Each structure stands twice: as structure tokens, then as C-alpha cells.
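Input record (one chain):
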Amino acid sequence: MPYGFYGARDLSSLTDFSARDRELAEKAAAQQEGRRRKALESRGNRLDELSETARRQLYDLLGARKSAELRDGIRRERLALRDLGQPPEGLERDYAKQRKASRRKVDTLVRKLGVDADKVRRIADRFHAGVDALRSDGDGKVVPGYDLPRHLAKWVDLSPLHVHPLPWGVLPPPDDPNDPNRWFLFRPPFFGFLFSFAPQATSAFVVDRLLFLDPSVGLVGNEATMDCTDPGDFGAASATAESQIAVPFVPPVAGVLEVLVDAQSTFATHHVEIDDDFGFSSAWAYQNNYLMMNVLHPNVVEPSLALMSTAGVDTDGDDETLDQQNLTRGQHYFAHLFSAGPVPAGQTVVVTVGTRSFDIAHANDMDLHSRSNFQWFINSVEVRVAP
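The corresponding structure, as predicted from the sequence alone:
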């Protein structure tokens, strides 16, 4: 499986940190990245294992001759269907009719070879179940995010700062400088950035991403793609993309950090296309987008996530198209998150806020194109030590 983990961070603005605090932040970031690499590598190895096991079982069931004849037959019909679409004759073709004819030819070949379709489907079902178990990203506790206008009462109740529109300058009363659990407000421009991308792919999948990141205005976002245009048996892929901005925080007392994120959705689209490629066809694709928070300190082992949008499509051979937009462009949403571990009092820590996209798909004798695009403006970040 082609596998990689590509990440970068720019915390050059840590000049106001003490040398010790800066060293701890960098050490924590490296430790979290190391754990992330191991988890992603483990999932990639599992996808490889599932794919190779299914291919071996199919080969053992059919034998060398039948396997080769079936694959060659599917490939011939796929190329023939493509050739029928060439101009000028192909401009007026009945694509659906020709596709059905190609399917009938492949079905005839399957019967001629004496292939036990039920046994093949059981092999495919085991592969699907194994990949399905990997649909969770598995890195960070996930809670739901909220649409702010529909949950305004909850938003107002979370912080006394929410009674009025959030200020751009000095916090008004009831801010109490002697309260160890008071809220600290951060708004753009933010400092620093972190981003990462982890593509994984078997078979003919190609995985890629576009990054959107501007800390000065709080822009974070990712466009993730997974494309399978020459599918064989049992292909799978996943894309994990993150982009984050950062703020400094000095906890008045030791404890777990509580963070409120007000984020404005500027782009939020799910798109999947799946086309049958004959054979024993099946495929699915699922896309997930999160707002996320992390603390770069050795006590905090993983990020915290708020699920904001999810969509997916699953097919056993039928062509499928998904175009879905769950979030309202320009609308405000919020995440209520807690750090996955406590931080000490008086030590400056880096709190990162942003978005993660985690998309995963598999395709068996089907073309698949998956594209998700989520972009957010981080309007405000509020941080305190949780009471």
C-alpha cells in the first residue's frame, strides 16, 4: 500500500515562551505525530492484509486459468464500452443499453467458467466487513458539534461572554481576574500553523488533498480526493487531512482545558460517484468532517474532535452519485471540547484549533471518485481550566 504521512508546523511565534515551555511544546508535537504515524501505519497494514487475503482466496477458488479469463473478459468489455463512446458515432449512443449488453456478456462468461457466485460473494463480504471495521479514524475522542442559531441557549449558557456579541478588545465584566476558571478569549489574527496529510491506498486508488490555511484570518480547510479509475478486486483507500491555527495559553491552575470554538462554514460539500465495472461489483465511500482542538503538552495524548458533517454511499453494483451539503454556507457552528489530559499551572502551552477530514472507501470492480471540501473561518477560541 502506498502510505505516507506529510505534516508541517510553524510555531516560530513561540518567542514569548520560555525556553523550557517551547521545548515541551515541540516535544509534545513530535510525540503526538509519532503516535499518529504508528496508528496510520497499522491501519494501512490491515488494509493491505485484507486486500491480499481476499485476492488469494479468490485465486484459490477460481484457479489460475479461470481467474485470468474472468479478469480478461471484464477488461475487454470495459475497453469495448469505452470505444463505443468515441465520436462521431458514440455521440448518439444509448449508453445504458450498451452497458446492460456488456453486463450480460460478463454474466455469460461467469456461467461458462462455472464460477460459484455465492462463494465469491462470501469472500467479498468478509473483505467488506474487515474494511468496515476501519471506518472510524480512531485518533481522538469524538463528540457532536452544534449549529449555533438552533442551539443558542446552550451557547449562551456555556460562557458569560456569550450574553453579548464577543468583543474584539478587552473583556468586559463579568470577567474576574481572580477567578482561576475564567474564560480567555482569542480572535484573529492567530499565530502559527499545523497541517498534516495521511494518504493510504491499495489497488488502483489515487489519494490527494488541497490545503487551505491562513492563520491571520483564521481560515482552515481541506479538500480530500480518492479516485479509482482502473479497479480490480478488493481496492481500498483513506485520506486523513488536518489544518490548524494556534493560540498561547497560560493556565492559572492545573487541570483539563475546556475550549469553545466558534467557526463559520464557508464551504462544506460531499461528492461521490460510483460506476459499475461489471464483475462481482460493490463499493462504498464515507466522508467525515470535524472541528478539532489539541494541546501541545506531553500530558495530552491526542486531539479532541467534534463531528460536524458526515455522508456516505454504499452499493452492491448499481451506479450511485452523492452530492450533499449538510452545513449552511456562512452559518456559525460551535464545538465544546476538553483536552485529553491535564496541564500544569503557570506553564505556557500551545492550544491548536482547526479541522480534520477523514474519508474512507473501498471498490470491487467499480470506478469510484470521492471528493470532500470543507473550509472554516475560526471566529473565536475561548479557553479556560475546566472547573
